[in-house]
C-alpha cells in the first residue's frame, strides 16, 4: 500500500523531523551559492541520518559494509559523512566540472548519467539521489535505473525539489512562478550571467504528483515505504496527501522504497 504521509509504523527518521531541524536546514539555503561547503555539509549530515534511519528500519542494521551509490553526487560533499558510517560511498555525476568543483577527491567516483547508470543490475545496497531529479529531463527514467541497480532487499531514496514550491526556481526564484524562462531571463538581466540552474537545460519543472504516480506505478517491482516532504517537521507530513496544496507546500518530496527480495531484474 502506498503511504503518502508515511503512516503505519512510524519511521525512525520521524523522530529527527522536528521544527528545529526544519528551521536549521531552511536557513542554510541562503549559503548554497555563496558558501556551498557550509550548505552541503549540513545537508550531508541530514542525508546520512535519513539513509541510516530508513536502512535500520528496513534491515535492523547500520550502514557498516554497505555500498551506497549517490546519483548526482557532484563533487562528493557526502563522501566523508557516509564513510564515517562505515559505508562504501560511490558518487555518480555526469558533469566533470561539477565533479571537481569543490577540489575534493572521492575514490571510486564515476562519471555517468543518472538515466543510464553504469552499474549492473542488483549490485548495491542503497541507491540515493538527493536534490537531483529536477535537474534531469526524465527523472522517472532515473528512478527506474536506481531501482534496477539496487539489490533485492535494498533501499532506494529519491528526493527532489518540487517546481511550484518556494525553492523550485533555485537561484532564479521566486520569479519561476511567472515561468521558468522568464525567471532565467530576469536573472541574466540582473546579474549579467547565466544562472547555474538554467530552465529547460539543467532545471526542469517536476511536480509532487509525478513522484507519487511513479511510486504507485512501481508497486510490485518496488515496495514503497514512505513518501513525505523532506524539510518539514513530522507533524506536517500530511500535506503530501492533498492534491494542489502539496505542489505549493511540499517543497521537496522524498520517496523511500525497497526492492522486494523475490524481485529480480530481467
Question: What do you see in this structure?
Answer:
The protein has a seven-stranded mixed beta sheet with strand order 3-2-1-4-5-7-6, sandwiched between helices. It is α/β, with parallel strands linked by helices. It has helices spanning 19-28, 36-59, 79-84, 96-99, 139-149, 180-191, 208-218, 245-249, and strands at residues 67-71, 88-93, 110-111, 124-130, 150-161, 223-229, 252-258. The chain folds into two domains: 12-162 and 206-257, 3-Layer(aba) Sandwich (Rossmann fold), CATH 3.40.50.150; 165-201, no CATH class. Helix 5 links the parallel strand 4 and strand 5 (150-161).
Write the layout of secondary structure elements.
Blueprint: H1 19-28, H2 36-59, E1 67-71, H3 79-84, E2 88-93, H4 96-99, E3 110-111, E4 124-130, H5 139-149, E5 150-161, H6 180-191, H7 208-218, E6 223-229, H8 245-249, E7 252-258
Parallel strand pairs: 1-2, 1-4, 2-3, 4-5
Antiparallel strand pairs: 5-7, 6-7
List keywords for this structure.
266 residues; alpha/beta; Rossmann fold; 2 domains; 7-stranded mixed β-sheet; 8 helices
